[in-house]
User: Fold this.
Amino acid sequence: MLTTESQRVLVAVQDDAAREALIENLAADGHDPRGASSLGHTRSHLKQQVDLLLVDLGTDTVHLIDVIRGGRCPTADEWLPIIAGSASSDLFQPVRLLERGADDVIYEPWLYLEVRARLGALMRRITVGHGRQVLRAGALRVDLGARRVWIGEAEIGLTNREFELLRVLISEPDRVFTREELLRVVWGWDEATAEGACTRTLDSHASRLRRQLNACGGDWVRNVWGIGYRLVDTGLLPV
Assistant:
């Protein structure tokens, strides 16, 4: 099991000064960082064991995430935790990065205090080992590889679509995902279709998912009226 105390972090950042500052601070905090400045250099480092990827390779960022999440990088775990950097001038880039598989996004410039906090929060939710990844939020655990869900010791059976919905929500438990975003990510509808779609399908699945989770304890899957859904209230993880 990984702990938040020491991680093998690959810092794949084009900007030399930002990369070296991140490496220096990560090492000072007891992590084992290594740097990469290009797509090729990053893929070479992924041949080694890496616990987490910090990435900003410009136009190559989305391609790298696609390759990892699609299992097309044979030496990298397809569930490798990824925090991506995003230019603050592009309001849509964070959504694109999250939709393609980033676990979290940080607006540039990289501020190390924020990086440290987000890295710790992400690794508290994720256990990686033997090719498996488990996301956690309080008593709720989701094993992505085995597609199994527990609250405490009680296992919960979900349909494929309910599982995919939960997978997205638990990736950022207190973030509000819009209905359009969930319809695109979970159902695969394109942007035009999702924006104009009736949300009855999403609402019915979210309602069934809420009932099944709540039956095992806690209060899960919050409907944020007029916007979408989140898993839990900010800072209030059921235990």
Observations:
- The radius of gyration is 18 Å.
- The CA atoms of residues 76 and 231 lie 29 Å apart.
- The chain is about 40% helix and 25% strand.
- The chain has two domains: 8-125, 130-230.
